[in-house]
Amino acid sequence: MKKVLLFLASVGLLVSGDVVFHNKTGLSWQDNRSAMSEKVTYEEAEKFCDALKAGKYNDWRVPTLKELSSIVDYTKYDPAILDGFSSGGSVYYWSSTPYMGDTDKVWGINFKTGATDANGKNYTRHIRCVRVSKK
């Protein structure tokens, strides 16, 4: 299978297959159909990322709210995601950041608008796994 490498200098993204490397943050992101099509509970999201094998890596996890915010493009609408991601859509994604005052909720981002919101862990949302890239 032929691999395509694409570098988007304006946003510091390097796209390789189903992984996007964000040069400014040093994070690699899952970028495949699973990121857009599958809705899971928070517990299922953790298990999904833990089991994910993408781009020859197996150390994926649910991103923090700060990490997830780093790929939002607040100048765009529907979807509000940096150019270079092949999937994202106008859907809500989980973060691992807990909601203060309610341990049954975590923060997430709606990639239609870039808005943040806390939801119960039993809701179903999309997941985009992340890993810290080794230099």
What is the 3D form?
Answer: globular
Main CATH class: Alpha Beta
Helix content: 10-25%
- The H-and-E topology, N to C, reads as EEEEHEHHEEEEE
How far do the termini sit from each other? 26 Å
Radius of gyration, in angstroms, nearest whole number: 14 Å
CATH fold field value: Mannose-Binding Protein A, Chain A
Order of strands in the sheet with most strands: 1-2-3-4-10
Q: Which structural class is indicated by helix and strand composition? A: alpha+beta
The CATH architecture category equals Roll
What is the number of domains?
A: 1
Task: Give the percentage of residues in beta strands.
Answer: 25-35%
The CATH homology group name: Mannose-Binding Protein A, subunit A
Mean pLDDT: 89
Features:
alpha+beta; Mannose-Binding Protein A, Chain A; single chain; 135 residues; three-stranded antiparallel sheet; disordered N terminus
In short:
With 135 residues, the protein is of the alpha+beta class. The protein is 15% helix and 34% strand.
Textual characterization of the structure:
- InterPro entries: Lcl_C.
- Pfam families: Lcl_C.
- This is Lcl C-terminal domain-containing protein.
- Residues 19-131 form the Lcl C-terminal domain.
- There is one protein chain.
- This protein has 135 residues and is an alpha+beta fold.
- The chain has one domain: Mannose-Binding Protein A, subunit A (Mannose-Binding Protein A, Chain A).
- 15% of the residues lie in helices and 34% in strands.
- It has a 5-stranded antiparallel beta sheet with strand order 1-2-3-4-10, with no helix packed on it. A 3-stranded antiparallel beta sheet has the order 6-7-8.
- A hairpin with a 4-residue loop joins strand 1 and strand 2 (13-16).
- It starts with a strand and ends with a strand.
